[in-house]
Amino acid sequence: MIYTLLIGGAAGQGIDTTSALLEWQLKKAGYAVLTSRDFMSRIRGGHNFILLRFGDEVIESADMALDGLIVLNEESLRLHRDSLKPDGFILCDTDIESDDPRTIQLPMADMAKELGNPRVAGSIANGVILKLFGLDLDYSEVVLRQQVKDQYIEINQTAMREGYDAVEQRYDRLNADFAGHMLVSGNQAVALGALAAGLRFYSAYPMSPSTGIMEYLAGQSKNCDLVVEQAEDEIAAINMALGASFAGVPAMTGTSGGGFALMVEALGLAGIAELPIVIADVQRPGPATGLPTRTEQSDLKFVISAAQGEFPRMVIALRDQADAYEQTIRAFKIAERYQIPVILLSDQYLGDGTKSVPPFVIPDDEPVKTTEVETPYLRYRLTEDGVSPRLHPGQTGHLVTSDSDEHDEQGMITESADMRNLMMEKRMGKLDHLRTELLEPEFTGDDACDVLLLAWGSTAGPVRRAVSELNQADGSRYGALLFGDVFPLPVQELMKRAPRAKTVINVEQNYTGQLAGLVRESCGIACDRSVLKYDGRQITAAELIQKLSEEA
User: Fold this and answer.
1) Residues 6 or more apart whose Cβ sits within 8 Å of residue 340
2) 439-551 fold
3) Is the pTM of this model over 0.70?
4) What is the DSSP track for 417-462?
5) DSSP letter string over 40-82?
6) How far is the C-alpha of 36 from the C-alpha of 302, rounded, in Å?
7) Tens digit of pLDDT per residue, the chain (552 long)?
8) Are 257 and 300 in contact (CB under 8 A)?
């Protein structure tokens, strides 16, 4: 059983705090939790909402079929009332007009004022929700200590108690066992993965929706021997990270599409200088400023081909919070092993959304390998696998050189046609070895599927859920390949399963079907049709099922 609540209001009314308190109490009570955030690009006013789903089973997708609607203004009520289930409820203040019989109206603003702080109205609403769903207040103090300052804990506890006592229980408590899980956002998961991989330098310019990575790392910097630098712009951010990498420090930067555009020339520097670096692109809709607080998957082809000239890189799309942690660790290992840039593709839905996941496991420290060098030391020595010995300046008696111009084995500038050929072949040869480490896409569904869906990144959860529900109904058999590694593109599973299916459909959050184009380019398989969404909102399993049913 999964319940879905929507908390809606204007920016500045405290819906983030209300949601954070509630989701953590639900988590502490043992429920699986998933939240997604839909907010406007403004500090005050407008209409924002948070979808909060919780239950006794793994939750893969958002859903707009609401069991409860907690509204802080009349606009939220007007916009979302039609999404409420017939047996659902509306919780609002008495100053919001509602003739809907499902409404629970309480003078929460007046109650908060009587307590001495109008801002605790959200905690009153929290208490109401806990009582309606048969939960207690056992964890309220623990959660409040996580979310609010010490001087406000007592008044918020009192507010929760007043809301709790104002209503009667409506739903049976579910027997859920997810209390041992973590509750993290996608951005936090990336940050934790970077720390687990040994990150020591992070530089970025704040750009929604990637800023959460920097904020989390900055908060952990003192405990983790980490330097976090807020750069003056994205050009400075990536160049600082490359400088740290050149000096031998595991380094990373993060941004969104517009900031990545500014990083393009320095990305080429990483390619020709063969400097390992991890770059997180938390996507939002473009072009230009686009929809800065919304979600999309439109940067795929951009990051694959960004920067002038050709050089090896890897692009990994993050599918959920657990995957974000694991793949960030892997990105650092691959970047270091092949001395290449590795780009992580996330998006606003995943980056800002939270989910219950099993506890992350910190990998065992790999033994530090001593780089074997011959004399004279050649930084760009021609090798069979394309990976040259890498020493760090100041840590060796050898001369360590690097250049953005084409260079010879020692690192000295050259315009020799023969050396140019050798260096290009050396660098691009890394891709042949990198392909042996690619992870095939996850397959879900009926092994003998008639309809094969192709998806990547954060659409994995909704697609996984949609396939499960479709296969429980009568009709066609469905399966899906959910890509994480997207460049180079792993094609073995694709080449095996696509010819068996009657129909191949790509599911993407962009206008042009960028994965479908990449698949066609990589292995000649053409998708029969597409399900595309590009309005800045994440596709849900219910939407996907409807689209597939309409076109069947």
Assistant:
1) 270, 271, 274, 276, 311, 312, 313, 314, 334, 430, 434
2) Rossmann fold (3.40.50)
3) yes
4) HHHHHHHHHHHHTHHHHHGGGPPPPEEEE-TT-SEEEEEEGGGHHH
5) -S-SSEEEEEEEEEEESS---S----EEEEEESSHHHHHHHGG
6) 26
7) 999 999 998 877 778 888 888 999 999 889 999 999 988 877 777 788 999 999 999 999 999 999 999 998 888 989 999 999 999 999 999 988 888 899 999 998 899 998 988 888 889 999 999 999 998 888 888 888 888 888 888 898 899 999 999 999 999 899 888 989 999 999 999 999 999 999 999 999 999 999 999 999 999 999 999 999 999 999 999 999 999 999 999 999 999 999 999 999 999 999 999 999 999 999 999 999 999 999 999 999 999 999 999 999 999 999 999 999 999 999 999 999 999 999 999 999 999 999 999 999 988 876 655 566 778 899 999 999 999 999 989 888 888 888 899 999 999 999 999 999 999 999 999 999 999 999 999 999 999 999 999 999 999 999 999 999 999 886 779 999 999 999 999 999 999 999 999 999 999 999 999 999 999 999 999 999 999 999 999 999 999 999 998 876
8) no
d(CA 537, CA 92): 25
User: Torsion over CA of 505, 258, 342 and 527, rounded to 10 degrees?
Assistant: 10
Q: Which residue has the tokens 């799309």?
A: 317
Q: Are 382 and 430 in contact (CB under 8 A)?
A: no
The two structure tokens encoding residue 295: 């979600």
Relative to beta strand 45-55, strand 529-532 is unpaired
Tell me which architecture the domain covering 183-357 has in CATH: 3-Layer(aba) Sandwich (3.40)
> 528 - beta bridge partners?
none
Q: Are domains 2-165 and 183-357 of this chain identical in fold?
A: no
SS3 label, residue 404: coil
Record: fold of 2-165 = Pyruvate-ferredoxin Oxidoreductase; domain 3 (3.40.920)
> Whole-angstrom Cα distance, residue 316 to residue 488?
9
DSSP for 201-215, please give it: EEEE---TTSHHHHH
Helix (H) or strand (E) holding 105: strand 103-106
Q: Where are the domains of the chain?
A: 2-165, 183-357, 373-437, 439-551
Give me 378's structure tokens. Answer: 């050649």
Beta bridge partners of 530: 506
For residue 281, the SS3 value is strand
116-141 confidence digits (pLDDT tens): 888 888 899 999 999 999 988 888 88
Q: What is the separation, in whole angstroms, between the first and last Cα of the chain?
A: 29
CB-based burial label for 519 (10 Å; 0-12, 13-18, 19+): buried
